[in-house]
Design a protein that fits this description.
Radius of gyration: 20 Å
Oligomer: single chain
Shape: globular
Strand order of the largest sheet: 5-6-4-7-3-8-9
CATH superfamily of the largest domain: P-loop containing nucleotide triphosphate hydrolases
Number of domains: 2
Distance between the termini: 46 Å
Strand content: 5-15%
CATH topology of the largest domain: Rossmann fold
Order of helices and strands: EHHEHEHEHHHEEHHEHEHEHHHHH
Number of strands: 9
């Protein structure tokens, strides 16, 4: 499905009224009077930002990893929505799809199997990450795709010297090109996710409001502590995000209270509420902020971004140890 913005939404993303948008339309059309368009593209959004000089305050590079060792937590839908919304706001974003199923790639309407280069080529064959990056229709947003070829990446990395640092080193040449590198990782532990953890500044952990999520959290925190002890790598920030939450069930309410009791220093104030729009947006290959702007899913992503960028949940080293 092609990403398109309705006029009112497009104006809102740029922080304009519709009358102000009409003035910009005329300016960009050399003053010619013509019927204002009903729809705009992501490319239009980038072009209008450049024309207006409306860009957010540049951020120092933050490499952010979405990971949970338990599957089915809605991690990919959330990470894609988060990354795309940052780019839509005007930040320069690179999304890395680390999963051999290529779901993050698919969520953006891109066929990973048709991509000539993927993250596998970057890690296994030293292809520069800039060559593997796929430009999207939004100029601020690039993707390094994945496909089934990623399923062999751990075997490819195994014999390499310094194998746990391959991703971090691959990202160094593009560190001045992006403000955010967002990584969507599969729910497993191996050399690929070890690379992702070693490359990340921030760890974002989506969890469902059920007690099965706690086992995955325990394993993840044990792994992070071991990385600090054995490899000297400390996460700058850790955020646990309660995802797909509905207060109508007792188990969800009890799981929330348990998270608040056991992980209060990491749990975000933002709760991503249960929303069928997220699943619909994913199936259409459109981020939630475009598919259903103004609805609770999009609102929660905005709230999460604001909270994460505020720098809360810092001091991860002291709180893990």
């Amino acid at each position: 499905m092609e990403i398109r913005y309705r006029r009112k939404h497009f104006a809102g993303v740029l922080g304009l009224s519709e009358s102000q948008l009409s003035e910009v339309d005329r300016r960009l059309n050399s003053g010619r009077e013509q019927e204002p368009p009903e729809f705009y593209t992501p490319g239009d959004l980038s072009a209008y930002r450049r024309a207006l000089g409306r860009h957010p305050t540049p951020q120092p590079l933050r490499r952010q990893l979405f990971l949970n060792f338990k599957g089915g937590t809605g991690k990919t839908s959330l990470s894609v929505a988060y990354a795309y919304r940052l780019a839509e706001m005007g930040h320069r974003v690179l999304l890395l799809d680390l999963d051999s199923q290529g779901h993050a790639t698919q969520h953006l309407g891109i066929d990973g199997e048709a991509c000539e280069l993927t993250l596998h080529d970057v890690l296994a064959h030293k292809v520069p990450i800039a060559e593997a990056a796929v430009s999207t229709s939004l100029a601020e947003f690039d993707l390094v795709p994945a496909n089934l070829g990623m399923s062999t990446i751990d075997m490819a990395l195994m014999p390499m010297a310094g194998r746990e640092y391959k991703l971090r080193k691959a990202l160094e040449p593009v560190s001045d090109r992006y403000e955010f590198v967002v990584m969507d990782a599969p729910p497993s532990f191996g050399l690929l996710n070890l690379n992702a953890l070693m490359a990340a500044d921030d760890l974002l952990v989506p969890v469902l409001p059920d007690f099965l999520s706690f086992h995955g959290l325990k394993l993840l925190f044990e792994t992070v502590a071991e990385l600090e002890e054995d490899l000297g790598h400390t996460m700058r920030r850790i955020h646990i995000i309660l995802n797909q939450y509905s207060p109508t069930t007792r188990i969800a309410r009890e799981a929330r209270r348990a998270l608040e009791d056991h992980y209060p220093e990491f749990l975000t104030q933002t709760i991503v509420r249960q929303s069928t729009k997220f699943a619909q947006a994913s199936s259409e290959g459109v981020p939630i902020c475009v598919f259903a702007p103004g609805r609770k899913g999009a609102e929660d992503v905005d709230s999460l971004i604001a909270e994460v960028l505020s720098g809360s949940s810092e001091g991860a080293k002291e709180r893990i140890s």
